[in-house]
């Protein structure tokens, strides 16, 4: 596991929704750090706050308290051009690829628009065709298709191509492979593992599925009711969980067992 | 007696220009007291099969051939709508995305009354409330749920409410189509326990559970059918299928399952290369041949039949029992 200075660091990150009696603390004083080239899985049930934490780190939500640093620089309050620069380095992939692509536009046009908006004059950016080829899609044929003409797995890979085209240093993947069939899921996880190996990409892999977390991640963070209740090397968390909640999560995962 | 059977079912969806052959000779038998699991990738026809079995097909579906019987009734597949009186009482559907299956503007008791009133005979409000309360209680839900709107219930409660409503008229067969795919593992576990209970306590006679989650099925189903391109390519008792899958597709599917068990991640998995076939074109050979590492000339030229060997069956030239040594069977 890389032991360098963290690239992304959050301290005391807190987000509450609502007020008074209805106040919900979705993320409760979370500290976390992700090193360059590190794959960290954030695991929890529905409602644990893991997606809210992902959105805070992406700067899609403003935290109620706490700070976020990227490369040692505070990014907590970034807006406008500063935030767009941040998104050059930190990209995201969400669960539903059909919601992420414009229904009427060809996939190639969506990729080109992302490049135009976030990296207009940047030579370090891959062109859409090369990005599609890198995720195992036929570049010309895929770019000419509209989203409904592709399967969920193909479109999910196109979405990853869109994110990685900008050569981000950190990818926040929020249930990015949950909708996929097991057979396709494995190929997408392998792709992320290869990108980490070849390009030192860091990944925050948000999921409710410990099986996927264990397959891909160096480190697993377990989130429960807004707090990180367990954190450690993936092998240790799975083999020897410390927290009762982690144990119950592990017990609930269906195993390929019988009788 | 077998609760439901489907033989050689062929059906397509027709658009203005094209036909999608969603079912291409599907076979199925549901035994009483059992959970039959159907597994396969997206687009293999499993939801179409569920829709026909629950007498609820999409209007665009055209059945070309095949036979189906449910609880002793031969179904006229050319006019499924004529059997609508069987819906709810004989066969019921537990739909995908159970959380969105409830009308947000109606109390649970009112929705339940609609379901019971759709059955034979007249039923008074008080009688339907009593019957619903009893079914709710069997699923550990208090009677006050009758007066609740869906939004007043937790996700787990809504799930049980949907199961209660689906089984309200004591269907003999329950068809559950991906009932848990939107749930996290803990809610999923609760739902699976619930399905098991419905069968064990004889609230329903049999369940067909459709999912793409192989691990889940291996824990819950008594028997598993693996579907590919509109056909069942292998079926066997769950344990046999998990321990010794015979069809190369089943093998690849089971090998793609990620389990959080120490030491299992050193091995890199392959998934299944390529994608499922285009259902518009029907090739002559085995539909899995283009993605199969073991495929031969014969596989590409001719389609293998589903051949039974004891309690199991597989449709694969390479697993033809006539060619296999007896000890490999």
Commentary on this structure:
The complex is a heterodimer of chains A (259) and B (329). Chain A is α/β, with parallel strands linked by helices and 259 residues long. Chain A is built from 11 helices and 10 strands. The longest helix of chain A is centred in the C-terminal third of the chain and has 18 residues, at 182-199. Chain A is globular. Chain A starts with 7 loop residues before the first strand and ends in a 7-residue tail after the last helix. The mean pLDDT of chain A is 90. Chain B has 329 residues and is of the alpha/beta class. Chain B has 2 domains: 4-90 and 171-328, P-loop containing nucleotide triphosphate hydrolases (Rossmann fold), CATH 3.40.50; 101-169, no CATH class.
Q: What is the overall shape of chain A?
A: globular
Main sheet: strands, sense, barrel of chain A: 6 strands, mixed
CATH class of the largest domain in chain B: Alpha Beta
Oligomer state equals heterodimer
End-to-end Cα distance of chain A, whole Å, is 38 Å
CATH homologous superfamily annotation of one domain in chain A? P-loop containing nucleotide triphosphate hydrolases
Helix content of chain A: 25-40%
**Amino-to-carboxy terminus distance of chain B:** 27 Å
Number of helical segments with 4 or more residues of chain B: 9
How many β-strand runs of chain B?
12
Count of individual helical segments of chain A: 11
Low-confidence regions of chain B: none
Output the radius of gyration of chain B: 21 Å
Low-confidence stretches of chain A: none
């Amino acid at each position: 596991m890389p032991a360098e200075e963290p690239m992304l660091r959050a301290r005391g990150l807190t987000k509450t929704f609502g007020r008074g009696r209805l106040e919900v603390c979705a993320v409760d004083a979370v500290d976390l750090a992700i090193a360059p080239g590190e794959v960290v899985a954030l695991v929890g049930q529905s409602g644990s706050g893991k997606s809210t934490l992902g959105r805070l780190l992406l700067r899609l939500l403003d935290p109620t308290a706490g700070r976020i640093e990227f490369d040692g620089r505070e990014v907590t309050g970034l807006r406008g051009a500063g935030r767009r620069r941040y998104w050059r380095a930190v990209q995201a992939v969400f669960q539903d690829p059909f919601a992420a692509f414009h229904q009427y536009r060809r996939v190639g046009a969506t990729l080109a628009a992302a490049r135009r908006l976030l990296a207009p004059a940047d030579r370090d950016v891959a062109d859409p065709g090369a990005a599609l080829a890198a995720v195992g899609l036929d570049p010309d044929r895929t770019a000419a298709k509209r989203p409904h003409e592709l399967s969920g797995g193909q479109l999910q890979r196109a979405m990853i191509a869109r994110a990685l085209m900008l050569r981000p240093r950190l990818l926040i993947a929020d249930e990015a492979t949950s909708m996929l069939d097991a057979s396709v899921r494995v190929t997408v996880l392998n792709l992320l593992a290869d990108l980490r190996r070849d390009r030192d990409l860091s990944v925050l892999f948000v999921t409710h599925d410990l099986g996927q977390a264990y397959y891909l991640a160096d480190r697993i963070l377990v989130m429960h009711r807004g707090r990180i209740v367990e954190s450690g090397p993936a092998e240790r968390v799975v083999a020897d969980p410390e927290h009762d909640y982690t144990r119950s999560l592990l017990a609930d995962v269906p195993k390929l067992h019988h009788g | 007696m077998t609760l439901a059977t489907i033989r050689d079912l062929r059906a397509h969806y027709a658009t203005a220009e094209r036909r999608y052959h969603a079912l291409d000779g599907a076979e199925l038998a549901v035994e009483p007291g059992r959970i039959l699991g159907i597994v396969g990738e997206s687009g293999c026809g499993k939801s179409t099969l569920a829709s026909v079995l629950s007498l609820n097909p999409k209007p665009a579906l055209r059945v070309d051939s095949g036979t189906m019987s449910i609880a002793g009734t031969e179904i006229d597949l050319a006019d499924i709508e004529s059997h609508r009186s069987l819906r709810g009482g004989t066969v019921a559907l537990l739909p995908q995305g159970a959380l969105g299956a409830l009308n947000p503007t109606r109390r649970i008791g009112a929705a339940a009354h609609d379901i019971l009133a759709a059955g034979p005979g007249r039923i008074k409000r008080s009688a339907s409330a009593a019957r619903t309360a009893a079914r709710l209680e069997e699923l550990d839900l208090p009677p006050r749920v009758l007066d609740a709107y869906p939004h007043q219930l937790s996700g787990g409660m809504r799930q049980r409410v949907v199961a209660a409503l689906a089984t309200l008229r004591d269907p003999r067969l329950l068809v559950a189509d991906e009932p848990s795919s939107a749930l996290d593992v803990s809610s999923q576990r609760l739902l699976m326990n619930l399905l098991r209970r419905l069968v064990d306590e004889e609230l329903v006679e049999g369940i067909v559970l459709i999912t793409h989650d192989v691990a889940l099925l291996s824990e819950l189903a008594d028997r598993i059918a693996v579907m590919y391109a509109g056909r069942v390519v292998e079926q066997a008792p769950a344990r046999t299928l998990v321990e010794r899958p015979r069809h190369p597709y089943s093998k690849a599917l089971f090998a793609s399952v990620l389990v959080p068990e120490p030491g299992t991640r050193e091995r890199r998995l392959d998934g299944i290369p390529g994608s499922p076939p285009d259902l518009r074109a029907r090739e002559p050979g085995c539909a899995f041949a283009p993605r199969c590492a073991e495929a031969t000339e014969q596989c590409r030229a001719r389609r293998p039949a589903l051949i039974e060997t004891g309690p199991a069956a597989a449709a694969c030239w390479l697993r033809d029992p006539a060619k296999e040594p007896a000890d490999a069977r």
